[in-house]
Amino acid sequence: MEVMSGNFIHTFIDEDIAEGGAYYGKKVHTRFPPEPNGYLHIGHAKAVFVNFGTAQKYNGLCNLRMDDTNPSKEDVEYVDAIKEDISWLGFDWGDRFYFASDYFEKMYGYAVELIEKGLAYVCELTGEQMREYRGDLSTPAKSPYRDRPIEESLDLFKRMREGEFEDGKMTLRAKIDLASGNFNMRDPVLYRISHAHHHRTGNKWCIYPMYDFAHPIEDAIEGITHSLCTLEFEAHRPLYDWVVENISAPSKPRQIEFARLGINNTVMSKRKLRQLVEENHVDGWDDPRMPTICGLRRRGYTPASIRSFTDQIGVSKVNSTVEYSFLEHCLRDDLNENAARAMAVLDPIKLVITNYPEDKTEEFEVENHPNHPEMGTRTVTFSRELYIESTDFMEEPIKKYQRLYPGNEVRIKSAYIVKCTGCDKDENGNVTTVYAEYDPETRGGNTPDGRKVRGTIHWVNAEDCIDAEIRLYDNLFTVPDPDAQEDDFTNYINPESLTVLNNCKLESSLKNAGKTDRFQFMRQGYFCLDSKDSTDDKLVFNRAVGLKDSFKKK
Ligand code: ATP
Ligand code: MG
């Protein structure tokens, strides 16, 4: 696999592992800690890449950890999907797959340790009171319970665990600094009471640790050296360090924050993606218009294209929004090199070659890729009746039109030069059949006399082509930033984000298309079978991306 490009995180790590650094002589060890409450999206792919890619670069290790300290929301379906997506992206956690909830007992122990050290206390302020007593920049926060005896806190905390108190009645708070300019340090809550069912621990616990307390402990228990997370945790780092400093944890990880990825014309938060699914705006988490990894996979994205995207957007400290067209650009780059070529007609009309024998069929050996002979050839058949795109014929051509119109010559890709002789129309004036004559001297599409033929069109043989449904996609939202709208973001769903073409004709070789194959359909873009809806009886192809690159390097 490609080695990740350098960035500021690697500069920090280089310092840390150099002689005299905090991790001198240690293996770099990172982790990817998704909360299993939804499917991974392209933003997560960045975090996966940063954590796994960095470990790989330093010959280190990266753990996969389900951050499931929050009860009730998690689901096994999500856990399995997350594993599948990370594997598909090409990363491997070996035997280091963990659940944060497995550390509940240890976390409880560290909380007791803090109380014993006089560094935590049980507070009986309600949520509302706590907000009221929070103070502001010039006024410190306050809690009348701060100086209660250690023994009392120990007793209350134990009884909290035993279920004696109802939700919200008490919390365990760190005793840090009520006047801190960083509000996260004003005696933050470490534990709350919640009589909620947990997907793994069931009803064993009725107190749950807060993220800021749990996360550094999870990292320390696993021997993580570098905890790479997104920028919103920057102001929480002093608390992260405080926890690591004050508990007798086996190791002292370092948190480094990087910018979140945003992409325009889509939404990325799991809550919003879930809303799209639950309100049936899309066909599930893996709808090809979704920015989820499974959606991109079904759409036709390759792991290499997503890795290349996450590498090229870079890792920095500045949040930015990347154009969707750049993601498409990365896919096009990959598929242009690696996808086999084929022909498909999306909106067919008949083309009859009137001077071609009715009972004759010819075979042409066509290369699968213009630059890669090693990708081999395939057989394309030709006969008297073909299908061509309806837009490749105009009875009365517009200016500069170089395709079929009466009297004009066109190259039928890889086969022959034909000259258009006319057409049939139905009662509404729509063209039903186009007629042409072929030049037998031009086999393979060459002109021995050197005459110029400007237009080349794709086609399929009407005799053996296969029927298919083809789905074309556009942005899921009509506005660049659906999150920033005043009303509900679902009001901005693009009604034309999905176009279903029912009457497409494919060259016969595509009968053998595999579910993971990608093709360039000549002049139409890059396509793959729809992994969910395509069957042997009814082929369904998705257009992953068109041919035209709207991304311009700035
Ligand atoms: P969301 O807001 O989309 O629900 P989250 O941060 O709650 O995301 P987690 O499951 O907690 O989702 O995320 C796991 C990891 O992925 C975290 O370390 C988080 O920082 C990172 N991550 C999530 N979204 C992005 C993003 N858009 N860009 C980069 N990293 C991200
Ligand atoms: Mg989260």
Describe it for me?
This protein has 554 residues and is of the alpha/beta class. Among the domains are: 8-262, Rossmann fold, CATH 3.40.50.620; 339-465, Ribosomal Protein L25, Chain P. The protein contains twelve helices and 27 strands. The chain has helices at 8-17, 42-57, 76-89, 104-116, 127-132, 150-161, 211-221, 237-246, 270-278, 293-299, 303-313, 324-338, and strands spanning 29-32, 61-66, 97-99, 120-123, 171-174, 189-193, 207-209, 226-230, 254-258, 261-263, 320-322, 340-342, 344-345, 348-353, 362-367, 377-382, 385-389, 409-412, 416-425, 431-438, 455-457, 460-461, 466-473, 498-506, 518-521, 525-529, 539-545. A seven-stranded mixed sheet has the order 12-25-26-27-23-24-13, covered by helices on one side. It has a seven-stranded mixed sheet with strand order 21-18-19-20-14-17-22, with no helix packed on it. A hairpin with a 3-residue loop joins strand 25 (518-521) and strand 26 (525-529). Helix 2 (42-57) crosses helix 11 (303-313). The longest helix is centred in the first third of the chain and has 16 residues, at 42-57. The model has no long low-confidence stretch (mean pLDDT 96). Adenosine-5'-triphosphate (ATP) is lined by residues 33-35, 43-44, 46-47, 67, 229-230, 260-261, 268-270.
Question: Which terms would index this structure?
Answer:
single chain; 554 residues; Rossmann fold; Ribosomal Protein L25, Chain P; 7-stranded mixed beta sheet; 12 helices; 24% strand; binds adenosine-5'-triphosphate; binds magnesium ion
The rounded distance between the terminal residues' Cα atoms is 28 Å
CATH class call of the domain at 8-262: Alpha Beta
- Mean pLDDT reading: 96
Structural class: alpha/beta
* Overall body shape: elongated
